[in-house]
Amino acid sequence: MIAVALAIEEPTPRGIAAGIARLITSGDLAPGDRLPTVRALAAELGVSPATVSHAWQTLSAAGLIVSRGRSGSTVRSAPREWLPLRYRDLEGSADARLDLSRGTPDVALLPSLERAFSHATVLAGTSSYQLKPDIPELHDLLRQTWPAPVESLTVTNGALDAIDRALSRLVRYGDRIVLENPTFPPFIDLVEHYGLEAIGVDLDDQGMKPDKFRAALRTAPAVVLLQPRAHNPTGISMTAERAETLAGLLSRSRFATKTIVIEDDHSGAITSAPDVSLATWVPDRVLHVRSFSKTHGPDLRVGALGGPRELVDKIVSRRLLGPGWTSRLMQGVIHELLTDAVSVDRVLAARDAYAERQHSFSAAMARESIAIPAGDGLNVWLPVRDERAAIVSLAAAGIRVAPGGPFVLDSRADHVRVTVGMITSDVDDIAAALAVAARA
Fold it and tell me: Which of 108, 124, 271, 433 suits a disulfide with 397, CB 3.0-4.6 Å?
């Protein structure tokens, strides 16, 4: 067994946890390796067993080790195989006092589903497998509220379902795809699934940087995949001016004449920024996707896809050979939620609550001498000195955040993602713990 004690520079709970974390990160301790017993390591370090036990609790909360009482502790084994790779990287312990790692909405801010279900059934009749996949009431409402004129729309099982099906019709193995860097981890998993070459584009406070975007278009990508609002993980929302600039670069590029843009507007009505789409300027080049998971409930699994009729029809046709359509009952529920005055007011109140939490968090971090602009939606991208040290430091405080590595194309991150949409109280104490972690 590796001499664990030699890697520990400071015999405190935080120092012991940090030393073990470094061994795990470097690979000196592999998944499944057994750790020394609490009493054995305490004796070797000359500290109390309680000190080592506290360090073990910290490492367990950080998702690095598994403790099984008298059976001892081991380095956490590979996560469940059914999870895509970067979902596995985000999987962690459920022991944290405050989990700010998930990127999910606050359930207390979601509209009630009881009334919606009671009214939705009248819209959900299905008498034929050859009916149009979308109920007319929802289809018409989506068209009225779409961010730009659109030829064709269809309802999907959430945003990722729409993006996956669009990619299946648009790309071939070896094609290039332009992504924001950082980006949503499942996008990177999809890129690898389809055998694509990812071209990363850095962001500023308005979206993709135009000079980087122009350079990326010179690689003749098949697809550009971006998030126009409440970007995950940074919280950046693209301005209309930046969208127009990017659309202009796309339309003028002689290298990207066949490039299609896929926009993932995943947070919709809970974002504070205006609705924006490159389709306003290049409608024949854009597939716009929106989801109702973060606004109305993740388990509803309802989204929508709109764009040029030729592309959308191909996606609908192929989907009929698989799942067929999104449950018309669930479409009726979403239609009810989007038109019921009480539900609409509830979502607007959630938007205001998330905006207030973003601003409160930004102000609290400023008091800790860390400048974090208030983002949009649920998340912020917190710069840290050392990703692993930050996660261990926060685990010691009972707080879990998402590691930054799964969000970046090169897997080397100097950030962590914090779901500030879940911070409902004690923002100053949380900011203080995050500031300590950022400097760890």
Answer: 433
